[in-house]
């Protein structure tokens, strides 16, 4: 898949030099949270989509890998064998069930315990879910029409690909602002976040307070092959192995000590200290998103320019994190037994290679680099969606977008993740609020004047009319209410 993606030329107008020069010159991590992004578009997120060749990682990554597994190499080797065996079974299971493996629930049933229980079991195992009918189809379609009108009134709006737009560089269009503030959208986010838990009672996090992350909008036309995202995981790449990245919270400690079965993807307190963007990645998210997600604005089925997810979830996370420590004894992929446990051994001396990880880019996954995931059979289309359905996937989930939109209608979504209230998120919210008021992209996104000169851009008062004071709180426009120290501190951090 990587080779296919690499054949894509850099999109017109996309300057890949900043990505390349960062990859070549950066040898130590820096603190990027308050730095401005360069102008660009969504292609900057992926080494392959930007046209950049994979660049060897600095030698210090060999030392990082060696330190991670030091003194428990036998446990790592044994856990790898168990993982490959478990994967073999689950790959077959997923391939035979197909899209129906994605759990779903009607929005009207999210407080019905007998419906929630099986849904929760599916979500926790698969890391992805659909909530049907969070808003009526007519409302979602109305938002799409408002966005289209906004684009018509502002023909200089940036998009990718620029000549046949699929993903617009829009953050503050009427439909986006209204959807983020909508009370049922916020309730759906709180519902999903309730399936996370915190081991530490003193952890400063609240899933009761959903906060908004202003992302883009996709209106993909039939036949489009430009917006083809291969299998990837957002939230950084090399950072997952780095002590100054996810290591700050020990998020994957169980995996790196040979106990991947004990890894709990739903424990939140370990994620609070994480630095997931050490290289100022053009597409990095510096908020803590428990789920990425989108609200459908079209009737779209598998193959029609939509999302694929990998329901292996925790097994896949364990695999792509352990993969760089191992090599095949016989590297001939055509040989029988290539995938067998007996053919794979822990490298006696670790290299700096982290398969699919490039500084400043998302983690990419390919058949060649991650053969045991059998991506061709396990990347699973989400089922048909209707306007108003909300699709969400865990922040560790591998996902992709159809290479070609083979349907007849537009495939359109509003990207709306589910984010809890934390100190990091409150700080981001303060900066995002300023961007909103100025009409520029949020702090994580490619900079420039954005929509500051757009006609018909919504403002502060529109958030209140769309979502009341709760909608304002989610955007950091009104203070959170409560007696506790946590709420007081968050208001201070967000400048409220
Ligand atoms: Fe993504």
Features:
14 helices; binds fe (ii) ion; alpha+beta; disordered N terminus; globular; 496 residues
Shape: globular
Distance between the termini: 47 Å
Helix count? Answer: 14
Bound molecules: fe (ii) ion
CA radius of gyration: 22 Å
Please mark out the parts with pLDDT under 50 across 5 or more consecutive residues, or reply none.
Answer: 1-34
How many β strands by DSSP?
Answer: 17
Biggest pleated sheet = 8 strands, mixed
What share of the residues lie within helices? 25-40%
**Which structural class best describes the helix and strand composition?**
alpha+beta
Q: What would you note in describing this structure?
A:
- By secondary structure, the chain is of the alpha+beta class.
- The chain contains 14 helices and 17 strands.
- The chain has helices at 2-6, 17-25, 60-69, 73-97, 113-126, 137-153, 174-181, 183-193, 253-256, 314-322, 375-378, 423-438, 460-474, 485-493, and strands at residues 104-106, 128-132, 159-160, 167-168, 205-211, 217-220, 232-233, 291-296, 307-309, 326-328, 344-346, 363-364, 380-381, 390-394, 399-401, 411-415, 419-422.
- The strands form five sheets. Strands 1-2-14-8-16-6-4-3 form an eight-stranded mixed β-sheet. Strands 13-9-15 form a three-stranded antiparallel β-sheet, with no helix packed on it.
- Helix 7 (174-181) runs parallel beside helix 13 (460-474).
- The longest helix has 25 residues, at 73-97.
- It is globular and about 65 Å long.
- Fe (ii) ion binds at residues 232, 234, 399.
- Fe (ii) ion (FE2) is lined by residues 232, 234, 399.
């Amino acid at each position: 898949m990587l080779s296919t993606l690499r054949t894509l030329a850099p999109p017109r107008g996309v300057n890949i030099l900043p990505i390349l020069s960062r990859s070549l010159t950066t040898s130590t991590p820096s603190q990027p949270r308050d730095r401005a992004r360069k102008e660009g578009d969504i292609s900057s997120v992926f080494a392959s989509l930007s046209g950049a060749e994979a660049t060897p990682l600095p030698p210090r990554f060999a030392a990082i890998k060696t330190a991670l597994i030091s003194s428990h190499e036998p446990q790592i080797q044994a856990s790898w064998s168990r993982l490959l065996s478990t994967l073999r079974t689950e790959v077959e299971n997923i391939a035979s069930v197909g899209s129906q493996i994605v759990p779903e629930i009607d929005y009207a049933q999210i407080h019905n315990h007998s419906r929630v229980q099986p849904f929760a079991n599916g979500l926790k195992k698969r890391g992805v879910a659909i909530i049907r009918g969070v808003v009526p189809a007519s409302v979602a379609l109305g938002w799409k029409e408002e966005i289209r009108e906004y684009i018509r009134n502002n023909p200089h709006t940036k998009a990718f690909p620029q000549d046949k737009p699929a993903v617009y560089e829009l953050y503050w269009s009427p439909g986006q602002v209204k959807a983020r503030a909508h009370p049922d959208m916020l309730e759906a986010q709180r519902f999903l976040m309730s399936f996370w838990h915190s081991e530490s009672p003193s952890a400063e996090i609240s899933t009761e307070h959903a906060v908004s992350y202003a992302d883009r909008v996709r209106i993909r036309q039939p036949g489009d092959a430009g917006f083809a995202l291969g299998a990837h995981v957002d939230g950084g790449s090399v950072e997952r192995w780095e002590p100054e990245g996810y290591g700050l919270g020990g998020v994957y400690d169980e995996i790196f000590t040979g106990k991947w079965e004990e890894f709990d993807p739903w424990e939140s307190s370990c994620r609070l200290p994480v630095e997931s963007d050490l290289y100022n990645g053009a597409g990095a998210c510096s908020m803590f998103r428990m789920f990425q997600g989108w609200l459908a604005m079209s009737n779209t089925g598998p193959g029609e320019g939509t999302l694929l997810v990998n329901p292996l979830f925790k097994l896949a996370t364990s695999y792509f994190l352990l993969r760089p420590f191992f090599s095949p004894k016989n590297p001939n992929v055509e040989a029988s037994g290539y995938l067998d446990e007996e053919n794979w051994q822990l490298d006696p001396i670790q290299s700096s290679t982290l398969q699919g990880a490039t500084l400043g880019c998302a983690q990419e996954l390919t058949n060649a680099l991650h053969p045991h995931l059998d991506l061709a059979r396990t990347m699973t289309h989400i089922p048909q969606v209707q306007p108003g359905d909300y699709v969400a996937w865990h922040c560790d989930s591998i996902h992709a977008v159809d290479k070609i939109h083979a349907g007849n209608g537009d495939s359109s979504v509003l990207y709306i993740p589910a984010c809890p209230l934390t100190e990091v998120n409150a700080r981001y919210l303060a900066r995002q609020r300023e961007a909103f008021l100025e009409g520029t992209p949020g702090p994580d996104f490619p900079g420039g004047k954005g929509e500051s000169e757009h006609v018909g851009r919504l403002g502060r008062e529109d958030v209140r009319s769309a979502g009341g004071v709760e909608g304002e709180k989610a955007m950091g426009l009104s203070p959170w209410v409560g007696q506790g120290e946590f709420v007081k501190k968050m208001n201070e951090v967000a400048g409220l």
